[in-house]
Amino acid sequence: MDLVIGIDIGATKTKIGLVNKEGHCLETNYFRTREYPDLEEYLDTIIENINHLTSKFPEDINILGCGIGAPNASSRHGTIVNASNLVWKGTVPILDKMKERLPLPMKIMNDASAAALGEMLFGNARGMRDFIVITLGTGFGAGIVANGQLIEGHDGFAGELGHIDMTIGDGRLTGLGVHGGLEAYVSATGLKRTILYMMCKYMDDSRFRNIAYNDLHGEDITKAAAEGDPIAIRAFDYTGNILGLALANFTAFTQPSAIFLMGGLVNSGKWIFEPMHRYFEEYLLDIYKGKVEILRSGLPPKTTAICGAAALIWQEHWEK
Q: Whole-prediction pTM value?
């Protein structure tokens, strides 16, 4: 049985899985990224997890390669460069160091671009030639497909839309120091920051007035909105407004037929989708109205990023 190793290097967790040609993740494991500030120890832990996963298969398996998705990853150079949410700074030659430990065909790409490739191979974008994938997790990522081709850019860093300066409101800093950057507002972390902003701006009673920032979680904000908490509802409307404006702006870049949303913030369901749709239609240029769908990812929610990373290798085998 042919399988591909998919690795998602996230700010919070590193997820590893074995993915078949249909895009099904057969075995998965994860560990917490921030617990390994030493890169060498971190990579050794990845190998230990891979060995553990492959040992679960009694039958013969053929590992075709390893795909890696990571923030600020250069597909051209095999490096991660100044990723704001990772513990290793500067230029990290992660592909070379991984190849020392795992002699297999290997590729790395920005995590959101890898997710776009996974959506095209395994998800709801099959058959589409123009679409954008937006990842709403700890940060904000984007993968862009135009004319059937993934846009990687000159140096492999295309799609860093989370750090576009939208000159929003209070001018929050992103992890890369961009004032008013999109990621500082539209992400799981951004939603938490908006809760604090709303409590400063409005005097409504709210459960969050007795909760410390580090104890705030996205699922709690969603639950509070469902129970009528005015601060939570205001926070989602504010976030949806900014996201709707951003997506309307992005539509003018490549005129996608669809925009796919994935990541933890998407789990907020109608609380993020309803205001986002409303503002998107309001801000969209007339020539694009009625032509762009906003959809959830068609990849399994718990293994979306893993499947996207594995698609870096599977794409070559599909094209043969």
A: 0.88
